[in-house]
Amino acid sequence: xxxxxxxxxxxxxxxxxxxxxxxxxxxxxxxxxxxxxxxxxxxxxxxxxxxxxxxxxxxxxxxxxxxxxxxxxxxxxxxxxxxxxxxxxxxxxxxxxxxxxxxxxxxxxxxxxxxxxxxxxxxxxxxxxxxxxxxxxxxxxxxxxxxxxxxxxxxxxxxxxxxxxxxxxxxxxxxxxxxxxxxxxxxxxxxxxxxxxxxxxxxxxxxxxxxxxxxxxxxxxxxxxxxxxxxxxxxxxxxxxxxxxxxxxxxxxxxxxxxxxxxxxxxxxxxxxxxxxxxxxxxxxxxxxxxxxxxxxxxxxxxxxxxxxxxxxxxxxxxxxxxxxxxxxxxxxxxxxxxxxxxxxxxxxxxxxxxxxxxxxxxxxxxxxxxxxxxxxxxxxxxxxxxxxxxxxxxxxxxxxxxxxxxxxxxxxxxxxxxxxxxxxxxxxxxxxxxxxxxxxxxxxxxxxxxxxxxxxxxxxxxxxxxxxxxxxxxxxxxxxxxxxxxxxxxxxxxxxxxxxxxxxxxxxxxxxxxxxxxxxxxxxxxxxxxxxxxxxxxxxxxxxxxxxxxxxxxxxxxxxxxxxxxxxxxxxx
Length: 574
Prior knowledge:
3 domains; about 35% helix; about 20% strand
C-alpha cells in the first residue's frame, strides 16, 4: 500500500479533539518529514499519536510473473481523477500492455491487468452500454471464445439487458451469440453460439396419438432459446383455459394447426363440432365422420347455427346433470360420471357473423334487401349463440377454437370476445405490428419471429407466435402431416364415427330465426316519394320515414332475434 505512517509523542496536555493542538503538531514535523500528514489515531495510555499520508510518488507492487498487479497512487488523488490516472499509468512504458482494471482513491491503490485485445474491446463495449467507467467492469476470456464479466453495482436487468444483448450479438459477437446474466451475483457471460432455427418440416407425431388427453393438445414445437438446439413441444393447455383462437392471413397455415389440434382431441376421446363457411368446408371434410351427432355445421349458415344451438342445448342438459350430481363443473365429476368434453371449431368466423350492409335508398321490400336482412338475422343469431356458449358453458365441458384472418371489431372479434380467449396463435412469419396488437392481449411480451427464420422459406413455413395461457409465449412451428395420414391414424385407433353428422332438417328449421310467422309475410310495397317529390325519405307502412323508420326496422329485427333465442331455449327445456 502507498501509505506512510509516523508515530510520535506530542507531549503532556495534547488534546486530539482540538484543532489548534493538531495543527501545531503538523507544523512541528513539517521541516523534517514534509507536508500531507493527517492524524489517524491517538492512544491516551501510551501518549502516542499516529499520523498517515499517501505516498508522493507512484509505488509499484508487482510480481513479474503475474498478469495483474497493484500500484500506489499519489496522495491527493480523488475519485474524479480516474481517467487521468488511467491514461498516465497505461501510457507509462513500465506498464506497457496493461490497463487499469480497478481504481480506489480512498485506499490509494489502483490495479493494472493484462487483457487480450478482444477482452479490452468487450470491456469498452460493456462499460459504454452500462454507462460506467471501463475499470468498473471486469472482463475475462472464456475458453469458448466468449467472455465472463463482473458487473458494477449499478447494473439493473430491466434497464441494461437489452443493451448488453446488443453488445453480445452486434458489437463484439454476431447473431447467434447470447447473454447469460446473474443479477444476484453481479455477473454475466457472453457466449458464442449459432442462431436457433427450425427444420423445413416437423412431422406430426402420429405414433403417440394413443397417449393423448383432452387436457393438452400439442400442435408444434417451440423455437429453442439461444445456445440450445432442442425443439420442445408446444400446445394448448385446456386446463388453463377452454377458449382459443388461431389468426393469420390466408395460406399462413391456420388449417394445418387446427388439424393438429382436432386430431389430438379426437384421439383423446373428446367430442367435436366443426363450423365453417361452405366455401372452406373442404379443409375439414376429412374429419367429418368423427364429429358429434349434428356437429357438422358447414353446409350453410343455417346449418352452422343449428350445430351451435344443438351444442348450447347439450350444455343446458349438462348443467342440469352437474346440479343433480352436486358439482360446479365437469372436471369435478368422478371418472365414471364424467361426460366427454366438446371442442367447437369455428373457422372463418368473420364470414359467419359479420352482417351485410343494407344498400342505402333501396326499399326494404326489395328482394335483394330482404335476402340480406334474413341473412343478417341468421348471422346475428350465430354470433349470439356462440358467445352464450363461450360465456356460460365452460363448466359443462365446452371448449372453443376460433379461426379468423383478421381479429378486430370489424370482423366480429372485438374486446368482449377477446376477453374470453385464453390462448392465441398468430400464424405467419412476417407479422405486422397491427396484426400482433389486434391478436395478442400483451403484444410486447410475445416474441417476434426472428428475421433469419422469416427469410428462410423452409424454416418459415408453418411458423407463428403463440400467447398461451399457463405457459410462456413462444415462436413455434406447427406439426405437419397430410390429412390422409391423420385420417388413417384415427381409423387405426378405431376412434368411433358418427352417422348423423349434419343437423337434421327438423333441427335446422327449429332454430331458423327467419321462419317466424311475422317474417314469412313480405312487407307491403313501398309508397315511394310523395307526388310533389319532396319529403324526408321513403315512409314505411306506419308512416315513418328517415331515422324513425330505420330505428323501427332495427327494433323489429332485434325483436325477431330475441324471439328466436327464446324459442331455442324453450325447446331445450322441453
